[in-house]
Design a protein that fits this description.
By secondary structure, the protein is mostly helical. It is 55% helix and 2% strand. The chain has 10 helices and 2 strands; from the N terminus they run E-H-H-H-H-H-H-H-H-H-H-E. A two-stranded antiparallel ribbon has the order 1-2. Helix 8 packs across helix 10. The N terminus is likely disordered.
Length: 303
Amino acid sequence: MLPGSLSGSSSNPRRPGPLRPDPGESDFPSRRFAAVLPVDTLTYRPPRWWQEVAVVAAGYWLYGLARNAIDGGAGVARDHGHAVQRLQERLHLDPEPPLNRWVAAHEPLAQAMNYYYATLHFAVTIGTMVWLFRAHPRLYRGARTVLLTTTLIALLGFYLYPLAPPRLLPGYGYVDTLVRFHTWGSLADPRVAERSNQYAAMPSLHVAWASWVGICVFMCARRSVVRWAGLAYPALTVFVVLGTANHFLFDAVGASVALGLGFTVQYALSGHAAFRPAPLAVRENPASALVAPPARQASACGS
Protein backbone atom coordinates (compact mmCIF):
# COMPACT_ATOMS: atom_id res chain seq x y z
CA MET A 1 0.00 0.00 0.00
CA LEU A 2 1.30 3.43 -0.86
CA PRO A 3 2.16 5.71 2.05
CA GLY A 4 -0.33 8.51 2.55
CA SER A 5 -3.11 6.77 0.56
CA LEU A 6 -6.71 7.19 1.65
CA SER A 7 -7.31 3.54 2.56
CA GLY A 8 -5.60 1.78 5.40
CA SER A 9 -3.65 3.37 8.21
CA SER A 10 -0.58 5.47 8.09
CA SER A 11 2.32 5.51 10.49
CA ASN A 12 2.60 9.27 10.11
CA PRO A 13 -0.92 10.68 9.72
CA ARG A 14 -1.12 14.33 8.70
CA ARG A 15 -3.20 16.71 10.72
CA PRO A 16 -5.73 18.80 8.75
CA GLY A 17 -4.42 22.18 7.72
CA PRO A 18 -5.92 25.57 8.48
CA LEU A 19 -9.08 26.83 6.89
CA ARG A 20 -8.68 28.86 3.72
CA PRO A 21 -11.19 30.42 1.32
CA ASP A 22 -12.28 28.08 -1.43
CA PRO A 23 -10.56 29.42 -4.58
CA GLY A 24 -13.15 27.65 -6.73
CA GLU A 25 -15.87 30.03 -5.60
CA SER A 26 -16.87 32.76 -8.02
CA ASP A 27 -16.77 35.31 -5.22
CA PHE A 28 -13.24 34.64 -4.01
CA PRO A 29 -11.98 38.12 -2.95
CA SER A 30 -8.46 37.93 -4.37
CA ARG A 31 -9.84 37.70 -7.90
CA ARG A 32 -11.35 41.16 -7.69
CA PHE A 33 -9.64 43.33 -5.14
CA ALA A 34 -7.02 42.87 -2.44
CA ALA A 35 -9.18 43.28 0.66
CA VAL A 36 -7.92 45.41 3.53
CA LEU A 37 -8.79 42.65 6.01
CA PRO A 38 -6.72 39.44 5.98
CA VAL A 39 -8.18 36.86 3.61
CA ASP A 40 -8.40 34.28 6.41
CA THR A 41 -10.92 36.45 8.26
CA LEU A 42 -13.26 36.80 5.27
CA THR A 43 -14.48 33.24 5.00
CA TYR A 44 -18.01 32.47 6.00
CA ARG A 45 -18.67 31.81 9.68
CA PRO A 46 -22.27 31.31 10.79
CA PRO A 47 -23.29 34.44 12.71
CA ARG A 48 -24.31 33.85 16.32
CA TRP A 49 -27.37 35.69 17.49
CA TRP A 50 -25.99 36.67 20.89
CA GLN A 51 -22.87 38.17 19.32
CA GLU A 52 -24.93 40.16 16.86
CA VAL A 53 -27.31 41.40 19.55
CA ALA A 54 -24.29 42.55 21.56
CA VAL A 55 -22.70 44.27 18.53
CA VAL A 56 -25.89 46.07 17.53
CA ALA A 57 -26.77 47.05 21.11
CA ALA A 58 -23.28 48.37 21.79
CA GLY A 59 -23.22 50.19 18.46
CA TYR A 60 -26.57 51.87 19.08
CA TRP A 61 -25.58 52.82 22.64
CA LEU A 62 -22.37 54.43 21.39
CA TYR A 63 -24.28 56.12 18.57
CA GLY A 64 -26.76 57.60 21.03
CA LEU A 65 -23.98 58.87 23.27
CA ALA A 66 -22.04 60.40 20.41
CA ARG A 67 -25.09 61.88 18.66
CA ASN A 68 -26.34 63.61 21.78
CA ALA A 69 -22.85 64.71 22.88
CA ILE A 70 -22.36 66.65 19.64
CA ASP A 71 -23.29 70.25 20.32
CA GLY A 72 -22.72 72.61 17.44
CA GLY A 73 -24.94 75.28 18.99
CA ALA A 74 -28.46 76.30 18.05
CA GLY A 75 -27.25 79.51 16.39
CA VAL A 76 -24.82 77.73 14.09
CA ALA A 77 -27.41 75.08 13.27
CA ARG A 78 -30.01 77.72 12.35
CA ASP A 79 -27.47 79.59 10.22
CA HIS A 80 -26.78 76.38 8.34
CA GLY A 81 -30.52 75.80 8.01
CA HIS A 82 -31.03 79.23 6.44
CA ALA A 83 -28.11 78.57 4.10
CA VAL A 84 -29.55 75.24 2.93
CA GLN A 85 -33.01 76.77 2.48
CA ARG A 86 -31.64 79.64 0.39
CA LEU A 87 -29.51 77.29 -1.73
CA GLN A 88 -32.44 75.01 -2.46
CA GLU A 89 -34.58 78.01 -3.39
CA ARG A 90 -31.95 79.28 -5.82
CA LEU A 91 -31.79 75.83 -7.40
CA HIS A 92 -35.59 75.53 -7.42
CA LEU A 93 -35.27 72.36 -5.32
CA ASP A 94 -37.42 73.38 -2.37
CA PRO A 95 -40.52 71.14 -2.27
CA GLU A 96 -40.65 71.18 1.53
CA PRO A 97 -42.83 74.31 2.20
CA PRO A 98 -45.84 73.44 -0.01
CA LEU A 99 -45.64 69.75 0.85
CA ASN A 100 -45.46 70.50 4.57
CA ARG A 101 -48.44 72.85 4.43
CA TRP A 102 -50.48 70.28 2.51
CA VAL A 103 -49.68 67.54 5.05
CA ALA A 104 -50.46 69.84 7.99
CA ALA A 105 -53.88 70.59 6.47
CA HIS A 106 -54.83 66.90 6.66
CA GLU A 107 -54.59 65.84 10.31
CA PRO A 108 -55.09 62.05 9.84
CA LEU A 109 -52.31 61.99 7.26
CA ALA A 110 -50.06 64.14 9.43
CA GLN A 111 -50.65 61.89 12.44
CA ALA A 112 -49.87 58.77 10.40
CA MET A 113 -46.70 60.33 9.02
CA ASN A 114 -45.59 61.45 12.49
CA TYR A 115 -45.89 57.91 13.86
CA TYR A 116 -44.22 56.53 10.74
CA TYR A 117 -41.29 58.86 11.43
CA ALA A 118 -41.14 58.01 15.14
CA THR A 119 -41.41 54.20 14.93
CA LEU A 120 -40.62 52.56 11.58
CA HIS A 121 -37.11 54.01 11.57
CA PHE A 122 -36.10 51.37 14.11
CA ALA A 123 -38.67 48.61 13.65
CA VAL A 124 -38.15 48.07 9.92
CA THR A 125 -34.36 48.30 10.13
CA ILE A 126 -34.16 45.76 12.97
CA GLY A 127 -36.65 43.50 11.22
CA THR A 128 -34.53 43.54 8.06
CA MET A 129 -31.42 42.64 10.04
CA VAL A 130 -33.23 39.68 11.63
CA TRP A 131 -34.48 38.55 8.22
CA LEU A 132 -30.98 38.68 6.71
CA PHE A 133 -29.56 36.86 9.75
CA ARG A 134 -32.04 34.00 9.38
CA ALA A 135 -32.58 33.77 5.63
CA HIS A 136 -29.26 34.98 4.19
CA PRO A 137 -26.53 34.34 6.79
CA ARG A 138 -23.71 34.45 4.21
CA LEU A 139 -24.75 37.99 3.33
CA TYR A 140 -25.57 39.20 6.82
CA ARG A 141 -22.15 40.42 7.96
CA GLY A 142 -21.49 42.39 4.79
CA ALA A 143 -24.88 44.11 4.96
CA ARG A 144 -24.44 44.80 8.67
CA THR A 145 -21.03 46.35 8.01
CA VAL A 146 -22.60 48.71 5.48
CA LEU A 147 -25.26 49.78 7.99
CA LEU A 148 -22.85 50.38 10.86
CA THR A 149 -20.36 52.23 8.66
CA THR A 150 -23.11 54.44 7.23
CA THR A 151 -24.21 55.31 10.76
CA LEU A 152 -20.67 56.27 11.75
CA ILE A 153 -20.36 58.47 8.67
CA ALA A 154 -23.65 60.13 9.61
CA LEU A 155 -22.26 60.89 13.06
CA LEU A 156 -19.34 62.65 11.38
CA GLY A 157 -21.82 64.69 9.37
CA PHE A 158 -23.71 65.68 12.52
CA TYR A 159 -20.46 66.90 14.04
CA LEU A 160 -19.15 68.76 11.00
CA TYR A 161 -22.43 70.36 9.94
CA PRO A 162 -25.05 70.80 12.69
CA LEU A 163 -28.27 71.68 10.92
CA ALA A 164 -31.64 72.89 12.17
CA PRO A 165 -34.48 70.91 10.54
CA PRO A 166 -37.07 72.95 8.66
CA ARG A 167 -39.64 72.57 11.47
CA LEU A 168 -37.30 74.47 13.81
CA LEU A 169 -36.44 77.15 11.27
CA PRO A 170 -38.48 80.39 11.59
CA GLY A 171 -39.46 82.62 8.72
CA TYR A 172 -40.50 80.13 6.05
CA GLY A 173 -43.96 79.11 7.20
CA TYR A 174 -43.12 75.56 8.19
CA VAL A 175 -45.62 73.74 10.39
CA ASP A 176 -44.14 71.51 13.08
CA THR A 177 -46.59 68.62 12.76
CA LEU A 178 -45.00 66.89 15.74
CA VAL A 179 -45.98 69.81 17.97
CA ARG A 180 -49.34 70.64 16.42
CA PHE A 181 -50.68 67.10 16.65
CA HIS A 182 -48.93 66.07 19.89
CA THR A 183 -47.36 62.88 18.58
CA TRP A 184 -46.43 60.52 21.41
CA GLY A 185 -42.75 59.62 21.63
CA SER A 186 -41.65 62.18 19.06
CA LEU A 187 -38.83 64.68 19.26
CA ALA A 188 -41.41 67.34 20.12
CA ASP A 189 -42.03 65.67 23.48
CA PRO A 190 -39.93 67.68 26.00
CA ARG A 191 -38.85 64.48 27.75
CA VAL A 192 -37.49 63.17 24.46
CA ALA A 193 -36.18 66.47 23.11
CA GLU A 194 -34.04 67.20 26.15
CA ARG A 195 -32.17 63.91 25.64
CA SER A 196 -31.80 64.14 21.88
CA ASN A 197 -29.74 66.31 19.58
CA GLN A 198 -32.32 68.32 17.63
CA TYR A 199 -29.73 69.47 15.10
CA ALA A 200 -28.47 66.08 13.89
CA ALA A 201 -30.13 66.37 10.51
CA MET A 202 -27.38 66.22 7.87
CA PRO A 203 -27.42 63.54 6.59
CA SER A 204 -30.89 62.13 7.25
CA LEU A 205 -30.34 58.84 9.03
CA HIS A 206 -34.01 57.99 8.48
CA VAL A 207 -33.43 58.10 4.73
CA ALA A 208 -30.04 56.34 4.93
CA TRP A 209 -31.41 53.42 6.94
CA ALA A 210 -34.55 53.21 4.79
CA SER A 211 -32.40 53.13 1.64
CA TRP A 212 -30.29 50.34 3.17
CA VAL A 213 -33.47 48.38 3.88
CA GLY A 214 -34.77 48.97 0.38
CA ILE A 215 -31.56 47.78 -1.27
CA CYS A 216 -31.36 44.69 0.97
CA VAL A 217 -34.95 43.70 0.21
CA PHE A 218 -34.62 44.37 -3.52
CA MET A 219 -31.41 42.36 -3.78
CA CYS A 220 -32.42 39.42 -1.60
CA ALA A 221 -36.18 38.92 -1.75
CA ARG A 222 -37.47 36.37 -4.26
CA ARG A 223 -40.96 37.73 -4.97
CA SER A 224 -41.10 40.69 -7.33
CA VAL A 225 -43.83 42.43 -5.34
CA VAL A 226 -41.68 42.30 -2.19
CA ARG A 227 -38.62 43.56 -4.03
CA TRP A 228 -40.46 46.57 -5.44
CA ALA A 229 -42.08 47.24 -2.08
CA GLY A 230 -38.55 47.38 -0.69
CA LEU A 231 -37.63 50.11 -3.17
CA ALA A 232 -40.84 51.99 -2.40
CA TYR A 233 -39.97 52.16 1.31
CA PRO A 234 -37.10 54.72 1.05
CA ALA A 235 -39.13 56.81 -1.42
CA LEU A 236 -42.02 56.90 1.06
CA THR A 237 -39.57 57.78 3.83
CA VAL A 238 -38.31 60.78 1.84
CA PHE A 239 -41.93 61.89 1.39
CA VAL A 240 -42.52 61.59 5.15
CA VAL A 241 -39.40 63.44 6.32
CA LEU A 242 -40.08 66.31 3.91
CA GLY A 243 -43.81 66.47 4.59
CA THR A 244 -43.32 66.61 8.35
CA ALA A 245 -40.54 69.23 7.95
CA ASN A 246 -38.03 67.05 9.76
CA HIS A 247 -35.50 67.25 6.93
CA PHE A 248 -34.49 69.18 3.85
CA LEU A 249 -34.23 67.52 0.47
CA PHE A 250 -30.46 67.98 0.68
CA ASP A 251 -30.45 65.88 3.88
CA ALA A 252 -31.79 62.99 1.79
CA VAL A 253 -29.04 63.60 -0.77
CA GLY A 254 -26.51 63.51 2.06
CA ALA A 255 -28.01 60.20 3.19
CA SER A 256 -27.39 58.71 -0.25
CA VAL A 257 -23.77 59.87 -0.13
CA ALA A 258 -23.28 58.37 3.36
CA LEU A 259 -24.78 55.05 2.26
CA GLY A 260 -22.62 54.99 -0.84
CA LEU A 261 -19.55 55.51 1.33
CA GLY A 262 -20.77 52.72 3.61
CA PHE A 263 -20.87 50.31 0.67
CA THR A 264 -17.44 51.53 -0.45
CA VAL A 265 -15.89 50.87 2.96
CA GLN A 266 -17.46 47.41 3.10
CA TYR A 267 -16.04 46.60 -0.33
CA ALA A 268 -12.59 47.84 0.68
CA LEU A 269 -12.62 45.73 3.84
CA SER A 270 -13.84 42.48 2.25
CA GLY A 271 -12.80 42.71 -1.39
CA HIS A 272 -16.27 41.81 -2.63
CA ALA A 273 -19.68 43.42 -2.93
CA ALA A 274 -21.99 43.40 0.09
CA PHE A 275 -24.54 41.16 -1.61
CA ARG A 276 -22.08 38.57 -2.86
CA PRO A 277 -22.01 35.66 -0.41
CA ALA A 278 -18.96 35.38 1.83
CA PRO A 279 -16.61 32.71 0.42
CA LEU A 280 -16.80 29.26 1.94
CA ALA A 281 -13.71 27.85 3.63
CA VAL A 282 -11.93 24.61 2.79
CA ARG A 283 -9.42 22.87 5.04
CA GLU A 284 -6.00 22.36 3.55
CA ASN A 285 -5.32 18.63 3.27
CA PRO A 286 -2.98 16.64 1.02
CA ALA A 287 -5.84 14.28 0.22
CA SER A 288 -8.20 17.05 -0.78
CA ALA A 289 -7.05 16.81 -4.38
CA LEU A 290 -8.64 13.33 -4.55
CA VAL A 291 -12.01 14.67 -3.51
CA ALA A 292 -14.32 16.18 -6.10
CA PRO A 293 -14.79 19.94 -5.55
CA PRO A 294 -18.18 21.05 -4.23
CA ALA A 295 -20.73 22.53 -6.59
CA ARG A 296 -20.27 26.23 -7.20
CA GLN A 297 -22.34 28.33 -4.83
CA ALA A 298 -24.77 30.96 -6.00
CA SER A 299 -23.02 34.28 -6.35
CA ALA A 300 -25.98 36.47 -5.47
CA CYS A 301 -28.77 36.27 -2.96
CA GLY A 302 -32.15 35.23 -4.10
CA SER A 303 -30.79 33.02 -6.88
